[in-house]
Every structure is written in structure tokens, then in C-alpha cells.
Amino acid sequence: MKKLRSSPISLLFIAFAVSLAVGAKTTPVRARATLLSLFERSDAIMIGRFDKREDSGTNRVGSGFTQVTTKTYFDISTVIKGEPRKFVVIEDEGFRYQIPKGTDAPAEAVFTVGASQGDLDNTPKPGDTVLLFLKSEGDSLVIADEHDGIRKIQATDQNVYVDRIKELNSIFENGGADPTRVAAWLVRCAEQQTTRWDGTHELMQGFRHLEWRDQKDPNGYERIDPTVSYVRGPEASKALTDELKNALTQILISSDFRVGPRSNELSDGDRELVALIKRWDPKTAAAFLVSQLKSGAFTAHENAGMMFKVAELIGDKQSSEIVRSYRETKSSSSGLTKSGWIRLNQMLDNFIRNAETQLAGFDTISSN
Description:
Largest sheet: 6 strands, mixed, barrel
Number of strands: 8
């Protein structure tokens, strides 16, 4: 068995201060690393089952703080990249903070650095299926990305991940990668809800990277997501042909955005898909969003977001005013009376009628 380890004291960190720092300034949310980025940084990729996590050693390093070494065990079912293996063990170190007696908090607390509630919800637990991304470091393998090197996945999505990663194995077989093939691969990612974020976010960030280079903006790096492929992403975006753009537009048109448990919300991948289509076919994107508004399947919060995007796409002042009023009314939705909800629905109906009128005379909108 080959032992896998993480960088010392990198995966786990004491953050009991999270509960003490209410009102403190928060840091920007880090986007999830894309498949392309993780693939480029990984020497081994595999699917397995989270078996168990055990403490293997402790060392008190201060008053109330204990350094803990843990081992996490995975049973491997599929190796997609790298040498075959049946199981792996990941060893890492972290701190635990002893909570004083008499408080409502648990006796010990361990938190992931910078973790949002969504991150914590997706933290693998025993029995979960995971996708592991590992890289070589000397004679050992370590997690390729401290935040996203272990991705919790649904068992039903395994084939999608296996197919996409095997395709990357072929694309990078000779070391290099044809940008057009990478672009086509990202479009295939967008076809499936499971990997839609991986395809659309990579392309969106690629376009933004190209714009930064063209504008020679000295602060452009601040707007480039570090979790995407710095070289391949922009190359793929630049190589995106009209045929591939049309394919993405068709994905948008044919998608009902109702996959998964959050059926009344747009996923991050769906949002990025809309933003992509806006670059070359804003009328289609706006018309599709209007059709979603008409379905009545979304929350007031989601409606406000889609209305804002439509108003931006069609560049209509009246639509923007309706969006502003809708948002102001929605902000007090917790205390809305029946008449307040009726007013919200009336504003939505007015917005839809106005947008459809604008779209009827909408021929072309200049875009990138």
C-alpha cells in the first residue's frame, strides 16, 4: 500500500474564531476548481469510497490546542489516470481547539480553512463516493488541490466523470493539447448538469483572461479565477468555433434548469451558461430566461436574478425600473401580506410583457 499524505497542517485548521468573529470582514468566496485545472495538476485520478478517518497521533502544542495527525482511508473502485491500486490512505495534520466547559459548543472543534456552509455540506463522510485528484511529491502522492482534491460525487454520476477524464487522457496523450479539442471537450462538459460548471466556468474565465490581455489591465490578475487552467482555458475560449457556440446555445435552449434537489434555483453552471451565450447570442439567452420566468417554477429571489439578466441583455430602461421595484418589494418578502405577493406577481407579469415586446423588435445586440 502506498501512503498518501497532504501538506502538513494544510487541510484542517482550527477556526473556532469563526463563531467569535461575527461581523468581521469576510474574504471572497473561492470558486470550485474545474476538471481541466485539476487534471493538469494531477498524476493520479481515481474514484473510490470514503471508508473511515482515524486519529493516529496527538501532540499538545499550546494551552487548549492539540496537533492531531489523522489518516483517511479510501477503497478504490476505478483508476482513471495513473497506476492501478485497490485502496489509499491520506495522512494529514491539523489543530483541535478544546472548548471550555460551560459553553454550548462541542468539546472539540475542527474546521476547514475558508469553508462556506456549502463546502461543509459537501465534505465527504464514510460511505460517500469520491473523486480523488493526486499529484506526485517525491516518492509519495499528495492531494493535488487542498480545497478540491477530493470531490464528493453521486454514484450515478461516475460514468460521466470517467468518460470526461478519459477523453482528457486522450487529448493530452502526447503532452500537448489541441485548443480546438479542449474547447469541444468543455462543450461536452456543459451538456451534462454534473459537469456543466466545469465546462462553462472554464470558458467564461478564458474569455475574461483574453480580455485582460487585450486591455493590458495591470489589475487584470485580480479578476482571473486561480482555480481554472491558466493556459488551456484562454486557448480553448479563443478556439471556440461558431459550431461549438451554436452547440452551447442549443444546450441552453433545451435545458429546463430543474435537475437535482434545488429545483427552484439555477445552478452555478446554469448561470455561467447563460453568461456565455450572452456573448454571441443575447437575444436567445434573453428569450430563454423570459420563458423560465413564465414557467412560475422559481422563487422570487431567482426571478429577480433572471429579470436583472434579461434587462441587461435587452438594454431596456423600463425593464430595469421594474426589476428595481421588484427587488425592493422582495426584500421585505418575509413580512409581505397577501396584497404584497399579488403586487410582486403583477410586476413579474408586467416585466414579461415588456420584455417580450422588446424582444419582438430585437434583431441584434453587439457583443463580444
